[in-house]
Design brief:
alpha/beta, Rossmann fold, 6-stranded mixed beta sheet, two-stranded parallel ribbon, 4 helices, globular
């Protein structure tokens, strides 16, 4: 699939992460814990955690992309819990990551910066909807930036 590339800056991503934090806060949900999806969720999750005053953040390790194509999600590490969990990631694409994590955390609230149409129904909170063929090249992804 040919992708339309966009190159958000650190400043833009920070603003979007702050906005995500405020959108989550406005929902008045009492989360039992916050989980960040490795690696894409690290930067937005740090900003959201500060915005919400959350100090205890867990990490899930899941692999679902190979060269910008969503594949089968492989969960390497995730808490199995019925608690109300805030899950932070950078993007929901086709929903493979979200569906795989829902098996571990059925009461999760997925919050992302970007939501694509196929994954949008799985996002509880998002900042921006983008087209299915759009690919954000994040400023912290040196490998992806090097290829452009």
């Amino acid at each position: 699939m040919e992708h339309k590339l966009v190159f958000p800056t650190y400043e833009e991503m920070h603003e979007k992460a702050v906005k995500l934090g405020h959108l989550i806060k406005s929902k008045n949900i009492n989360f039992d814990k916050m989980v960040v999806v490795s690696r894409g969720g690290f930067v937005p999750a740090a900003v959201v955690a500060y915005t919400l005053g959350i100090q205890d953040v867990d990490i899930v390790s899941i692999q679902s992309y190979i060269d910008r194509e969503a594949g089968e999600a492989i969960v390497h590490r995730a808490p199995k819990t019925d608690e109300i969990v805030l899950v932070i990631d950078d993007i929901v694409d086709k929903g493979g990551t979200a569906k795989a994590l829902k098996e571990y955390m059925p009461n999760m609230h997925l919050a992302v910066i970007y939501a694509k149409p196929r994954g949008l129904p799985l996002a509880s909170t998002y900042v921006e909807e983008i087209t299915q063929d759009t690919w954000p090249v994040f400023p912290w992804d040196e490998e992806d930036k090097a290829n452009h």
